[in-house]
Amino acid sequence: MSDARYRHPISPRYLEVDRQGVVFNMWYLAYFDDALAGWLAAGGLPYPQLLADGYDVSLVHTELDWTAGLAYGESAEIEVGVDQVGRTSFTLVFEVLRAGAEPEAAVRLCRGRTVYVVVADDGSGKREIPASLRAVLEAG
User: Fold this and answer.
1) Which pTM does this prediction carry?
2) What is the DSSP secondary structure assignment for residue 35, as one 8-state letter?
């Protein structure tokens, strides 16, 4: 992933760390949700606006692969990139990177690939990707 992609900062809280001294695996999905919202806002579509327009997104599939752990007190960034865009769904890739002294020295800790489906905010089901969201996806 290039340095031009959106990077969302994270700093693990004490309660997110397990007995092994690293962030417990389930927290990565919460980090990805937070990074998704930040990425949308950075692209000009704050999540509250997506909801106000009558849309939401539902996670339908995710894969995570870890290469190293993130400990309490360490800071990292989640890099967000677009993998695929369909008619009603899209796939994002999340890379959790521990900061290095130089940007190229960042260490990849975890990689996630998540498929989202656009749904109506009123619960009435799947919808085509709205133009406002598609613009962010195509720019990403």
Assistant:
1) 0.91
2) H
